[in-house]
Amino acid sequence: MTDALRVDRVGAEETAPTPVDTSDTFAARTRGLRKTYGSTVAVADVDLAVPHGAVVGVLGPNGSGKTTTIRMLLGLTRPTSGEVELLGCEVPEHADRVLPRVGALVEGPGFHPFLSGRQNLLRCAAMEPHLTRSTIPGAVGDALDRVGLSRAADRRFRGYSLGMKQRLGLAAALLVPRELVVLDEPTNGLDPAGTKEVRRIIAELHGAGTTVLVSSHLLSEVEATCTHVAVMHQGSLVAQGELAGLLESGGPTLLVSTPDVDGGVEALRDNRIAASEHQGEIRVELTDVDAPEVIAELVRAGIGVHEARRGRTGLEDVFARLTEDES
């Protein structure tokens, strides 16, 4: 993946360049990844590229193919066709070699209901090749503290709320330092405080240089935590690239705060400048005009300008634009 936004559209006239084939560039990568169940296509020829050190949000509604793609990345589901590379190793052929370097929470955690949270994590830690018997208790305690479950660590798992179960699954993924952490809907069932904690953990992982892949159907979560975005819709990857580039792809706009919105819109339109009312402000499309010219026209028309700032396309608007032709 390059710094520029890469957009892949089914049936588009132009196709973005294929990412450079360099293992050092990507923590995870797929080529032509496809999964079918009979006549149903769950994932259609996905070329996903996850740069090292990035926080990549796989965004899409339920049923868009996010979880199936993640399961194929981790070797949990065998692709119908295509290639998967994880930390430089082919998957599922070399999954046993690479998965100890990967932490994952996929489709909700599964633990023994009659064991406590701590006992469940101790069992998980016993299977970690990088932990010894003497270091396991400390690793478990640190993981529980990191996700805010220390006080509930000795309660039975069956008595945990959905949010607590999700936290325990996250703790299992963070028992040892990982090069790549994959989180499938990590804020599912969490209250606002829990969601804030997950954001903090993702930020800490990113700061430490860990690559994080997060799937979500919540646009606000992706926008708040991710550096890169991959948008999936109906099994296809319709766009991927840096979040900032994706948000700028809708075209430049100017938002003008004024006490006379209607008068300002009319004055601009009289001068053939595309303008409209937007949430109590004037929104101007800067396709054929620049910002100083817009301000000058408003001043000449006697329209008071309190503030003018560059408009920023929201992820919700971008997602709607990218998927509207795919419905």
Give a structural overview.
It is a single chain. With 327 residues, the chain is an alpha/beta fold. It folds into two domains: 26-248, Rossmann fold; 253-312, Alpha-Beta Plaits (2-Layer Sandwich). The protein has eleven helices and 15 strands. The protein has helices spanning 66-73, 95-98, 117-126, 136-146, 162-173, 192-207, 219-225, 243-248, 261-270, 291-300, 315-323; strands spanning 26-37, 40-46, 49-51, 55-59, 81-86, 89-90, 102-105, 180-184, 211-216, 228-233, 236-242, 253-257, 275-278, 281-285, 307-311. The chain is elongated, with a radius of gyration of 24 Å.
How many distinct domains? 2
CATH superfamily of the largest domain: P-loop containing nucleotide triphosphate hydrolases
Shape: elongated
β content, as a range?
A: 25-35%
> Largest beta sheet, briefly?
6 strands, mixed
Structural class: alpha/beta
Subunit organisation of the chains: single chain
- Spatially, the strands of the biggest sheet line up as 7-8-9-4-10-11
Task: Provide mean pLDDT, rounded.
Answer: 86
Low-confidence runs of at least 5 consecutive residues = 1-23
Figure out the total of helices.
11
- Architecture of the largest domain, CATH level 2? 3-Layer(aba) Sandwich
